[in-house]
């Protein structure tokens, strides 16, 4: 049901895992330079403005990152909206991007992940997986998704 809402509603969706404590203070923005990542970050501006800390994170080696929209541009955009954000690139260490990102979120004790949602064909999701699918099925924190 969450996938349908995310991909068909035209609105951002906040997915809360069982046992989430309700805080949305430590925010992580998953950044790959894509239009979906930019939309998610923009849609989440009110949430990010209320957060105590914000970090823009890229997982290296996942896919070609759009070099015309590096993390530094995302951080600058947030600053224009009064949001002080740190920037970090994480190495997946042989893990899938979804698993590496989930481990990072746990290690940082993040309260919410802001990310663009990507829809793929059912066959592709089954064969290749995907970060969106992983975050929906095994997220350690709240996830704000925009498509």
- Estimate the mean pLDDT confidence: 81
Could you estimate the helical fraction of the residues in percent?
25-40%
What gap, in angstroms, lies between the N and C termini?
Answer: 15 Å
What amount of the residues lies in strands? 15-25%
Question: What's the level 1 CATH class?
Answer: Alpha Beta
Helix/sheet category? alpha/beta
Ranges with pLDDT <50 over ≥5 residues? 120-129
CATH superfamily, please? Answer: HUPs
For the biggest β-sheet, the strand order reads 1-6-5-2-3-4
Counting structural domains, the number is: 1
What letter string, H or E per element, gives the SSE order?
HEEHHEHEHEHHE
Shape: globular
Largest sheet: 6 strands, mixed
Our count of helices gives: 7
Give the key terms.
7 helices, six-stranded mixed beta sheet, alpha/beta, Rossmann fold, 147 residues, single chain, globular
Summarize the structure.
This protein has one domain: HUPs (Rossmann fold), CATH 3.40.50. It is 39% helix and 21% strand. It is built from 7 helices and 6 strands.
What does the model show?
Residues 120-129 have low confidence and may be disordered. By secondary structure, this protein is an alpha/beta fold. The chain has one domain (2-9, 27-146): Rossmann fold. The chain has a six-stranded mixed beta sheet with strand order 1-6-5-2-3-4, sandwiched between helices. The chain contains seven helices and six strands. It is 39% helix and 21% strand. It is globular, with a radius of gyration of 14 Å. The longest helix is centred in the last third of the chain and has 12 residues, at 97-108. Helix 5 (97-108) packs across helix 7.
């Amino acid at each position: 049901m969450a996938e349908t809402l995310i991909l068909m509603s035209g609105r951002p969706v906040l997915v809360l895992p069982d046992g989430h404590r309700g805080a949305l203070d430590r925010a992580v923005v998953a950044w790959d330079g894509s239009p979906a990542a930019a939309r998610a970050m923009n849609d989440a501006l009110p949430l990010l403005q209320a957060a105590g800390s914000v970090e823009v994170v890229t997982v290296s080696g996942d896919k070609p990152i759009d070099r015309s929209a590096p993390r530094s541009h995302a951080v600058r955009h947030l600053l224009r909206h009064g949001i002080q954000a740190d920037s970090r690139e994480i190495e997946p260490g042989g893990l899938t991007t979804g698993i590496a990102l989930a481990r990072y979120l746990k290690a940082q004790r993040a309260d919410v992940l802001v990310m663009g949602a990507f829809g793929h064909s059912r066959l592709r999701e089954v064969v290749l997986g995907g970060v969106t699918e992983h975050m929906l099925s095994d997220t350690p924190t709240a996830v704000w998704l925009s498509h």
